[in-house]
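Hi U.,

Before I forget, here's the chain from the pilot set. I'm dumping it here mostly so it's searchable later in email.
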Amino acid sequence: TFLSSYPTATSAQVLHTPISKMQNEDGQNVDLYIPRKCSWTNRLISAKEHASVQINVANVDPVTGLATGDNTTFCLGGYIRFKSEGDMALTELVRANDAKLNAE
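Structure:
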């Protein structure tokens, strides 16, 4: 037949094909799209998921109570928000991050 005359790759050839990484000469990642992960469930957030949110929470100095200018980013997927657990998840993530920052 027409298609059988073309050579096809075997599974061994496909498995041993080197995977190219999108990095520049300095070793920095230059991919056009890096998928996000939900901070609570560690599920991947697809590019077309419009129910997900990304929230920046300011870091606060424990002595003065003033914002330090740094922030911590949390991503919540639409799955958690759909189950009405977004508020609880964000509260627990911030509480765990605060405990980690105070321990340092």
